[in-house]
Write a structure and sequence with these properties.
By secondary structure, the chain is mostly helical. The chain is built from six helices and no strands. It folds into two domains: about 100 residues, Cytochrome C biogenesis protein (Helicase, Ruva Protein, domain 3); about 55 residues, no CATH class. The termini are far apart.
Amino acid sequence: MNRARLLVSFVLLSAVATFAASFAVAQVRRPRPVTDDPAIEQRLQKLSHELRCLVCQNETLAESRADLAEDLRDEIRQQMKAGKSDKEIIAFLTERYGQFILYRPQVTPTTYLLWFGPFVLLLGGLTILFFYIKQRRDTIAEQPLSSDERRRAEELLQTGSGKETA
């Protein structure tokens, strides 16, 4: 029994130590190299909101805390210091990483399906629904009630209204 307690204690202590070590490593961040020029930082913020983090994929480069995002922001800072325009920086990054780095992809022949696909599917679905309803309406023919059916319906209506008042 004593060995079992010792084993459980060892496993729990190992788990806590592993968790604490991984938490400490995650908290250690490299110091962010910030330039002394606030204009470059402002340009970087604006530009990084237009670019996607390649690791997170659902965040902009400005929102991401991934190491690759830090590296990309550093690269953008260096290019801004070198005097490149925002368009030149975006062209460099799209050449290097493809259209995926743009948070809002451009409308090009390769992205037509992305931009227009949902509308085409919606229009196709509405067209199919329209023709289905039209065909269904044409197959259902209205037939007037015969005199026996009309008399029976009137009897049912009269007996039904008599039951509700009683």
